[in-house]
Amino acid sequence: MTAAGPGGSTIATPEFVLALREHIGHELLWMPGVTALVLDRSRTRMLAVRRTDDGAWTPVTGIIDPGEEPAVAGVREVAEEAGIACRALRLLDVRTLPPITYPNGDRAQYLDLCFLCEADEDAVPFPADGENSEARWFPVDEPPPMNERFMRQLAMALEDDAETRFRR
């Protein structure tokens, strides 16, 4: 079974979500999600992936597994979706995303934890799973078209301010 993740992509639904859905049906499910905003070491390029479901360019996003550390989830998602290794440096942004309804009727709402991650200059991304049709580097001053949330998170990463952002 597949569903859309916090970035809007079609993703393989984790087993723990399928088990929960057996009990709650289509009711709203609160989910922890992660966004990995990956820059190269020189801070001149950002990693973006093109989603297979809607063609949108986004940073790597995904669902945090039960018991998994959020930063570890971000690094894992980058390896799974873009085929490269990275290091999580710091938490950039924490926000609650609006509720969504998937085509099958399932409803979810995500708590998004956005991490600034760093990858080596020579890392060559590729669409490592079926969730994305492309994965590549973009100059940070010429990012792909992305929604306002991702553009704001990129701006936060480039500020290099150690303060985590959250809504008050």
Automatic annotation (TrEMBL):
Pfam families per record: NUDIX (PF00293)
Domain of life (superkingdom): Bacteria
GO-annotated molecular function: hydrolase activity
Signal peptide: none
Ranges of residues in domain Nudix hydrolase: 29-160
Keyword field: Hydrolase
Cofactor field: Mg(2+)
PANTHER family in UniProt: ADP-RIBOSE PYROPHOSPHATASE YJHB-RELATED, GDP-MANNOSE MANNOSYL HYDROLASE
Protein name listed in UniProt: ADP-ribose pyrophosphatase
Species assigned in the record: Brachybacterium ginsengisoli
